[in-house]
Amino acid sequence: MFKKLIIGSLLFVGSLYAGTINIAVAANVSYAMDTLLEEFHKTNPNTQVKVTLGSSGKLTAQIKNGAPYTLFMAANMKYPEALYNDGIAITKPVVYAQGGLAMLSSSNQDFSKGIELVTTDVIKKIAIANPKTAPYGKAAVQALKNANVYDTVEGKFVYAESISQTVSYAVTAADIGFIAKSSLYSPKMAQYKENINWANVDSKLYTPINQGIVILKSGEANSEVSAFYTFMLSSTAKKILTDFGYLVP
After folding, report:
1. pTM of the complete model
2. Coil, strand, or helix at residue 46?
3. Which member of 72, 83, 129, 174 has the lowest number of beta carbons within 10 Å of its beta carbon?
4. Which pLDDT band holds residue 8 (cuts at 50, 70, 90)?
């Protein structure tokens, strides 16, 4: 089931001229959306933005089945590229943010060791998203291989089917896990402290996960959709995304 947010500004309440744009957004961006929309409304106060959150795959299925979204912010490039190739998206996919990896543990850890922490005896189980289906799992494997520790720790893996499940495993069924850094901005994660319970994975060890944005057919020739699209690619939006744990191109 998809969680829907109808987010707007009091500035447009009661306005007869307010436009509404419907955007589909990958769930991992949910915690940044309020701040992004607050900033967008500073220059577009009369635009109402209706946001539907979900997995990129399921949102893509909805779009293909005629859901009236005008713009799609995906968790990777695969799905927007498919929509563009099918003629459902009218703009070529562009990267608006890059997902970064972090290591998370419910216990205090010595993160000064970097990724080699996972080779120590204190780490007996490592949560990782299935690299065959999850982009963050694939990135974690790449990081471990580039750090020359993959063969040493492969036997410790506890596989999860999604990045959200990986977060759960990291703090329950495993000693540490490789998660999307943006997951740490959930209010439920405030108890975990940087360099005590979590740390960034060196971005030089893996290819950051490109998240793509496209305007869809139903948003064609809509100036308000174009305005939001332009905003999402602006330095202002990129600064906000950086504050929420993303890398930016």
Report:
1. 0.77
2. coil
3. 83
4. very low
